[in-house]
Amino acid sequence: MHRNLINGEWVEGARVSRNINPSDTRDLVGEYAQADAAQARQAIAAARAAFAGWSVTTPQQRFDLLDAAGSEILARKAELGDLLAREEGKTLPEAIGEVARAGNIFKFFAGEALRVGGEVIGSVRPGVGVEVTREPLGVVGLITPWNFPIAIPAWKLAPALAFGNCVVMKPADLVPGSAWALADILHRAGLPKGVFNLVMGRGSEVGAVLLEDKGVDAISFTGSVATGQRVAAACAARMAKFQLEMGGKNPFVVLDDADLAVAVNCAVQSGFFSTGQRCTASSRVIVTEGIHDRFVAAVAEKMKALKVDDARKAGTDIGPVVDSAQLAQDLDYIEIGRKEGATLAAGGEAIERNADGAPGFYLRPALFTETTPGMRINREEIFGPVISVIRAKDYDEALALANDTPFGLSSGIATTSLKHATHFKRHAQAGMVMVNLPTAGVDYHVPFGGRKGSSYGPREQGRYAAEFYTTVKTAYTQA
Ligand code: NAD
User: Fold this and answer.
1) Whole-angstrom Cα distance, residue 419 to residue 429?
2) What are the percentages of helix, strand and coil residues in the chain, rounded to 5?
3) Which protein residue has the closest C-alpha to ligand 1 atom 28?
4) Is the pTM value of this prediction over 0.85?
């Protein structure tokens, strides 16, 4: 039994959740205690009590703790990657890569703890000095989704702690294992009691307490648009600071002058890898007339070679969908696409058992062609391995189609034209733009986030994380 971490103690929960391997539903990854509302409140009170001490620790103390956690994560990346692949279903290389990213994030923010600075500015009044400094916020509530079980907790936790905040974290119900491993590492690294609390449990119960309890000063949320809107409303009502990272409907533009192999690789990787379950996945591929047919044929050909199998088996390209509900949603959208008149050019079938006969939530990646921009499959986030191809007559139309979405997380283009690449970088309405690279796959030391319906509030990651996890103070001194 994996328990919750509240005020430095491992405590039983009100219920138990069973963590199931989506590659083989007979395999129980582990049992995890589920906190209830009262325990969530205890965790918040513990974090509040710990804040006075933690917020005045030296940068060196915070560096040492975060650096030690980062080193352990990196040293154990194969083992933790195996756990992640087993509970979430992304392939082993992807899962190990995600764990390494989490380790590097802890090391980056260990350094940031040492680099917290400010400004000294001349006053407009004689004899007066002005200093601008950053201070921690207090208690931060972190609510995370299932699709990056260790990287997203890491990219919220590490800056929160580096800048002197205390934390209550509620991971997604489907993937408690990676979050628990992270809590265990931080606990053993020697974090004082109450500084970091892990409360696994339901969003509607534990998550709701984080949103409503006045003891939480700020919420960092990543997840769906619907939950994000709830977070925004609850935080605005009590004027708590909040930050939201939500859905995407990311476009990938392929121009006539693209290198075909580069374009196909980018589309297949960002459309299908991690089973399409990335907020930065390309789900709309906008292709100009001159390359359209060659591109579609090459993608369909490449799809034949994609091996859909157990996430932890060598040679698997595409692991299972995370659970039965997400699989049902993916299949629904494939049916919706067909009914809307799109052509299902390849894939799209559920597979009940993998090559070894194990039951799992497998889905062959799907390619829709002859789709139009207004179709639901081009407007709504599916969150599965499904690509829709939209024809465009030229670059200008392709750019307009790319921007024709309520979302704005990542946007990509395949082109050998410097002119079009330069124009696209400036005019794509997205927080992240990729040229000749997949829309998914980002560095850990630079800002991450979107615009329009994808994100709200300051950026996450890199030096920009300080905008959310600190508050600015301006001090005036008359000598
Ligand atoms: P979700 O919104 O269902 O859940 C996210 C988290 O919110 C979970 O921990 C959940 O338990 C919690 N929650 C649910 N109801 C709540 C409530 N009433 N109050 C408080 N918390 C509550 O999202 P998901 O299905 O876990 O994740 C998939 C979504 O996440 C997709 O839309 C995807 O695009 C998005 N995502 C976005 C980014 C990004 O950075 N933009 C990154 C990864 C995933």
Assistant:
1) 18
2) 40, 25, 35
3) 223
4) yes
Residue of 160, 145, 178, 158 whose CA lies nearest to 219: 160
398-437 residue pLDDT tens: 999 999 999 999 999 999 999 999 999 999 999 999 999 9
Whose C-alpha lies nearest to ligand 1, atom 31? 224
pLDDT digits (tens, 9 = 90+) for 298-341: 999 999 999 999 999 999 999 999 999 999 999 999 999 999 99
Structure tokens belonging to residue 63:
């560096």
Residue nearest to atom 14 of ligand 1 (CA): 203
Ligand 1 touching residue 409 (CB < 6 A) = yes
335 flagged as catalytic: no
Asked whether 149 lines ligand 1 (CB < 6 A), one says no
Q: What does each C-alpha distance from 261 to 87, 124, 254, 290 come to in angstroms?
A: 33, 60, 11, 15
Structure tokens that stand for 429 in this block:
């309405």
Is 245 among the residues known to form the active site? yes
Task: Report d(CA 169, CA 364) in Å as an integer.
Answer: 34
Which residues have C-beta within 8 Å of that of residue 316, sequence separation ≥ 6?
A: 91, 92, 307, 308, 309, 310
**Which one of 87, 98, 205, 245 is the catalytic residue?**
245
* Cα distance from N-terminal residue to C-terminal residue, the chain: 60
453 secondary structure, DSSP code: G
Q: Mind giving me the DSSP string for 140-201?
A: EEEE--SSSTTHHHHHHHHHHHHTT-EEEEE--TT-HHHHHHHHHHHHHHTPPTTSEEE---
